[in-house]
Amino acid sequence: xxxxxxxxxxxxxxxxxxxxxxxxxxxxxxxxxxxxxxxxxxxxxxxxxxxxxxxxxxxxxxxxxxxxxxxxxxxx
Amino acid sequence: xxxxxxxxxxxxxxxxxxxxxxxxxxxxxxxxxxxxxxxxxxxxxxxxxxxxxxxxxxxxxxxxxxxxxxxxxxxxxxxxxxxxxxxxxxxxxxxxxxxxxxxxxxxxxxxxxxxxxxxxxxxxxxxxxxxxxxxxxxxxxxxxxxxxxxxxxxxxxxxxxxxxxxxxxxxxxxxxxxxxxxxxxxxxxxxxxxxxxxxxxxxxxxxxxxxxxxxxxxxxxxxxxxxxxxxxxxxxxxxxxxxxxxxxxxxxxxxxxxxxxxxxxxxxxxxxxxxxxxxxxxxxxxxxxxxxxxxxxxxxxxx
Lengths: 76, 303
Known about the structure:
The complex is a heterodimer of chains A (76) and B (303).
Chain A: H1 3-21, H2 23-29, H3 51-72
Chain B: H1 4-30, H2 35-60, E1 64-65, H3 73-86, E2 92-96, E3 103-108, E4 111-117, H4 118-123, H5 126-141, H6 144-168, H7 174-214, H8 218-228, H9 236-244, H10 283-287, H11 294-302
Parallel strand pairs in B: 2-4
Antiparallel strand pairs in B: 1-2, 3-4
Helix pairs in contact in B: 1-6, 1-7, 2-6, 3-5, 5-7, 5-8, 6-7, 8-11
Keywords (chain A): Membrane, Transmembrane, Transmembrane helix
Transmembrane segments (chain A): 52-73
């Protein structure tokens, strides 16, 4: 297996697990399209992510794991 | 010079963020992309992110113009007074039903908006609400909203650059495409950790400024305490604090406006990167928190 493919599998699987287990952390660390987190949750707390957004991140995590698993399959 | 320690740490984190950007710009330049294009692209990305961020934040909560009469007249008066003391233009005031007590500021100095939830206004008394508003106005005065947008912009740019670097250096097969997406995300996450550290600094500074301009940290401390407790019993705040045994003093003597009289007192008390700051939350939660723990903020406001 090529080093880049191995890296893609390793990093992709790790990212997939993070998305599935801690979707709110992934949302907090996402910069593109991010707005002020203060508008959600109550005053003084970290903002809350919507359930739709967390499920979307989980879906992306599952997709990451699926691609990593596909890359792990031996080439015909 | 106020908040020397904080400013120093801000400078270090800011320099790290700038270094990330310089590396990307240098790589892009080395690959033949004109420097002007890199700069224009960066400014455009940050500008779009700022505009969309402000618009979507106000739209997502259904914010409406705050009337200048009735129960809101006092809020307008207090904000006007605070804005004058801080040397900034009075922000546009809006009100929204958010379901929870909340307030936030968006926009830049001179074109800012402060949104207050109806639930917050019903929960807090006039002085406590003033403490919260002073904190939000401090964010405007210190250009925190713009700072965060620039930080997020840098994180986006660095992430996109890392993604393209991996993509262009590979064979364009599925593994390379996947690797580029993953590396872009991971790199962006790493840069965002620094941006979130800046966010936590800015909260302490805004608290300190609110304390300074209101003349006491007690109203904001009480507001935070009340909101945390579910705001059932307005007088229970101090009791709860005393029960926790945090060694807090009682309500500060001067609740009135002693502008500029009290020192903020956060200078050397904030832990490195606000991560190892006597914070009892898990390291994971601490690293991605946008706000310091409320208990710690209350304690500092009462020091």
